[in-house]
Amino acid sequence: MRRSAVIFLVLTLGSVAAASPAPAASPAPPVVLIVMENHAYGQIVGSPQARYLNRTFIPAGELFTNYWAISHPSLPNYLAMTAGSRLGCATDSCPPGSFGANNLFAQLDRAGIGWRAWEESMPSNCHSSDAGSYVVRHNPPVYFTHLVSRGKCGLWDRPYPSVLPPLRPFTFITPNICDDMHSCSIATGDAWLASHVPDLLAAGAVVIITFDEGTSADNHVMTAVVGPGVGAATSDHHRYTHYSLLGGVEAYLGLPALGKAAKATPLPI
């Protein structure tokens, strides 16, 4: 081939390559956070009642062996893991809609990142009082003033769906007060997880399961993550808390860390 033809061919191919757009980056897998209730690490890990967790979920991903809840009772922990602070709340009786603090859900809204909160047995969107096996203290979006007053809670805080819809980038899930192990057995809650988590994983989600608090004497709780990019049968022995969980979710979604999450070691997701 003549030299002039070679130069023309190289220049032409270079022009085509420069004009071709780079392939779009694949979106990160959606994150699903499921919060169970009131059992310490040693009551769950290794328990014969938690067969799904111990035989299927934990072996498929990473177990955080040194993870701690923040407080007692329930509600301050839910606030900590979504706002980076207990917000001065020390009981389960703090009124819904009363906290004007920044929070994970508001961050997602401002960033244009889709989210949902799914509450099992909740009778209607953003329901602000106990009803049957639904308890409002396990539903954090209801407590944030701006989410309620601007209608975001009413839009995105929903009863658990009967058919799994397309997942948003972040979904917060609370089973009802029986299925989260609060008022029923470990085996009951484990069976609920076995019935719901596989569909979430099949939809491509990174699924995190944690417990809001342990026992009164032991706030060491089980937390594990399974999903795309998570190594199977692995464990992490660094110390983490609910603030770490919030910071890890925020880092994964490209958000700044709120409150005490900014000083906590982010949970690797």
Briefly summarize what is shown.
The chain contains 9 helices and 10 strands.
Walkthrough of the structure:
With 269 residues, the protein is of the alpha/beta class. It has one domain (27-262): Alkaline Phosphatase, subunit A (3-Layer(aba) Sandwich), CATH 3.40.720. Helix content is 31%, strand content 14%. The chain has an eight-stranded mixed beta sheet with strand order 5-4-6-1-7-8-2-9, sandwiched between helices. The longest helix is centred in the N-terminal third of the chain and has 17 residues, at 3-19. The N and C termini lie far apart (54 Å). Residues 1-19 have low confidence and may be disordered.
Low-confidence stretches: 1-19
Specify the helix fraction band.
Answer: 25-40%
CATH C-level class: Alpha Beta
Q: What is the mean pLDDT? A: 93
What's the tally of helices? 9
**N-to-C SSE series?**
HEHHEEHHEHHEEHEEEEH
Give the strand order of the largest sheet, numbering strands 1, 2, ... along the chain.
5-4-6-1-7-8-2-9
- How much of the residues is beta strand, in percent? 5-15%
